Amino acid sequence: MSDCMYCEENDKLKSLMIKICDLSFSTLYLFKDQNHKGRCIVACKKHVNEIFELSDEERNMFFADVAKVAKAQKELFGANKINYGIFGDKMPHFHVHMVPKYEGALQWGGFFNDAGITPKHLSDEEYAALMDKIKAAVL
């Protein structure tokens, strides 16, 4: 689908996130802004805008991938809670922001958002190490 950064894997996508791996029904990305350590995006491999556009089997496969990633985030990074963001107002491709939250840390007790927060970028080596840990945990 044209104009979809997930389907095209275009420069916009690459400016925001790095592909970690393919899962059974989704693609897992590491969000480049790591203000919330381990923040990822799980994007449906099939181009749909809404969850109800998936069959029951597809929906279950997608959310099995989401659960697998959440478990890895909790175990790898000691997150106290995983926030799940499903928006898509401006990106009509079904995806879930998976944001580990830590008690006493940034935005604990409230919604995660990027407004007014300076992005925390890592070195290439740090991104690679983080992605290797996550990939090993989910595959």
TrEMBL record:
Gene3D superfamilies: HIT-like (3.30.428.10). Pfam families: HIT (PF01230). This is HIT domain. Residues 5-108 form the HIT domain. GO terms for molecular function: catalytic activity. It comes from Anaerobiospirillum thomasii. InterPro entries: AP-4-A_phosphorylase, HIT-like, HIT-like_sf. PROSITE patterns: HIT_2. A motif (Histidine triad motif) lies at residues 93-97.
